[in-house]
Design brief:
Length: about 120
């Protein structure tokens, strides 16, 4: 009886050890994945900082003014006049496209008036 109990306990220990090893391996795998994601996030942040620095360098007023002067003949830029600035309600309304049924109906009428019927 003692031998069967020993064999059973050894089998249980082996199963638990195997399960523990599997859990440890899975945790290490997830930890490695998290480390890779952290590294990628840090790289993206560094890239964003570099792009923001480039953007601020490219948008310096003196640089833009010099570019405008150099390409004045090509761009033909003019200062903004005060009367060009308007409120949104002063802008012309955007025409509303006809509904699909109306467009199809009007095309059939136009075709019929030209002698063609679809």
């Amino acid at each position: 009886m003692l031998k069967t109990l020993d064999v059973l306990l050894v089998a249980i220990v082996l199963v638990v050890a195997t399960w523990t090893f599997g859990q440890k391996y899975q945790a290490e795998s997830l930890e490695h994945e998290v480390m890779l994601l952290d590294r990628k996030i840090a790289q993206e942040r560094e890239t964003m900082q570099l792009l923001e620095a480039d953007w601020s360098l490219l948008n310096q007023p003196f640089r833009l003014e010099a570019l405008a002067r150099n390409f004045d003949a090509v761009l033909q830029l003019k200062p903004v006049e005060p009367q060009q600035i308007v409120e949104p309600n002063q802008l012309p309304a955007v025409p509303v496209p006809p509904a699909p049924e109306e467009a199809a109906h009007s095309s059939k009428i136009a075709s019929a008036s030209q002698g063609r019927i679809r």
